[in-house]
Write a structure and sequence with these properties.
By secondary structure, the protein is α+β, with helices and mostly antiparallel strands. Helix content is 18%, strand content 43%. The mean pLDDT is 86.
Length: 181
């Protein structure tokens, strides 16, 4: 029997994948976990994602966005056998670590990632202030410039004063529909 180069303790490891293949790689590894030969050796793979708000065609959508593009986390006991199986999964380009030795991701880091993934409602990141001039990038007022008169950070909305026909008109917009000038 071959000597195991690794210490065989259970930990999370980061693997790099081809961009766009993260879900396929995680699915492949998770299917292998269900196989009898990997029980107790590989415990699962995870693609860290968080919910974000996106606007397309004037409609607001909540999407799952990958936190680390091109990476998958694998919960496993590192051995020659498990290293070989994960490393030879289609789409995997390698383990993250120092030299040729895969480095476990710290429990503290895993806790932070899981916490970030567990946030149900995406938060609005409004980086605008009252009286700031912005350009409208989406919706019926696309191409207009205006001045912010109100900021509602709870709903992610802005009230922008747009000059139309020689007078200021208030327009309520989503914060994602404007950009700073």
């Amino acid at each position: 029997m071959a000597v195991n180069r690794y210490d065989d303790t259970r930990a999370w490891y980061a693997i790099s994948t081809y961009s766009g293949y993260e879900d396929k790689v995680a699915d492949s590894i998770n299917q292998r976990v269900d196989g009898a030969e990997m029980k107790g050796k590989i415990f699962g793979a995870l693609v860290p994602k968080e919910k974000q708000i996106e606007i397309k065609n004037g409609k607001r959508k909540v999407i799952d966005k990958k936190i680390f593009q091109g990476y998958v986390l694998v919960d496993m006991k590192l051995s020659d056998e498990t290293w070989y199986i994960v490393r030879n999964t289609p789409g995997v380009t390698g383990f993250i670590g120092t030299g040729t030795q895969p480095t476990p991701v710290s429990e503290k880091e895993i806790t932070k990632i899981k916490k970030r993934m567990g946030v149900e409602d995406p938060k609005f990141n409004i980086n605008y202030t009252i009286n700031e001039v912005v350009s409208i990038t989406d919706g019926p007022f696309k191409g207009f410039d205006g001045t912010i008169s109100e900021v509602d950070s709870v709903k992610g909305k802005l009230k922008v004063m747009v000059s139309m026909f020689g007078r200021e008109t208030p327009v309520e917009l989503d914060a994602l529909q404007v950009k700073k000038i």
